[in-house]
Specification:
Mean pLDDT: 95
Number of helices: 2
Oligomer: single chain
Helix content: over 70%
Distance between the termini: 13 Å
Amino acid sequence: MASHDWKELERVTTRLDELRNRLDAAEDANQIAAIYALEEEIKELETARKHLLHGLIERVVDEAAA
């Protein structure tokens, strides 16, 4: 299995955690523009993470079936 995909998943997950922490801080400070920007970036990364997970799951299942 391609280790770079796992590393990318880890990178995206770490980035999502960072963005969620920043979102919490922006909400606490009532920074509306930052909230909208962070929510959009989180949404995009969640989609990317979903695609990475889907590909990794398919590979695991294919390897298990082989």
